[in-house]
Amino acid sequence: MADYRIETVRTGYRQWTARNDRGAEVRMAAADDESGQPSFTPVELLLAALGGCGGLVIDRTARAVDHDDLRIVVESVSAPEDDGRVGKVRVTYELDIPEDANGGRAAEVFARGVRLTHEKHCTVSRTVEHGARVEAILPDGTVGFAEGGDS
User: pTM for the full model?
Assistant: First the structure.
């Protein structure tokens, strides 16, 4: 049984909607498709997943630091040699931490929370960092593509 299941259905030319079993939906379209807006591109959703996962984990790992105003910005940088992949992802945690918070240790506690988020707890970040096996199953049940991960 899968840990997660998302159904993606075509809603128009170069327009798709992803749905989870809890009823949430997100629209996807090409960035240059004006009729598909507002929507996310698939890469934007990957970056959003990194930011969202990081935020949800920070809520646990850095709960000793007031982070109600935390903003997480995720950016991708790609070059021609990245061959159609995202070359680098930068996750920036923007938060004003008062110097006197938590006995002057708030910045250290928050940094530890961020480190634990990426080293141990954020499934999305760890998957991007280490890669996952991708298998494409064709309508007849055969594998049309399989690559990556630990097999």
Answer: 0.89
- By DSSP bridging, strand 143-147 and strand 134-137 are antiparallel
Whether the predicted pLDDT of 123 surpasses 60: yes
pLDDT (0 to 100) of residue 1: 42
Same domain assignment for residues 53 and 25: no
Cα gap 127→4, rounded to integer Å: 14
Rounded distance between C-alpha atoms, residue 136 and residue 143, angstroms: 6
pLDDT at 50 over 60: yes
121: DSSP letter: I
Low-confidence winner among 22-36, 89-103, 112-126 (lowest mean pLDDT)? 89-103
Amino acid letter, residue 126: R
Strand order in the sheet with 25-29: 6-12, 15-20, 25-29
Tell me how many domains the chain contains.
2
The answer to whether residues 26 and 79 belong to one domain is no
Q: What is the pLDDT of residue 2?
A: 56
Range of the domain at 109: 41-147
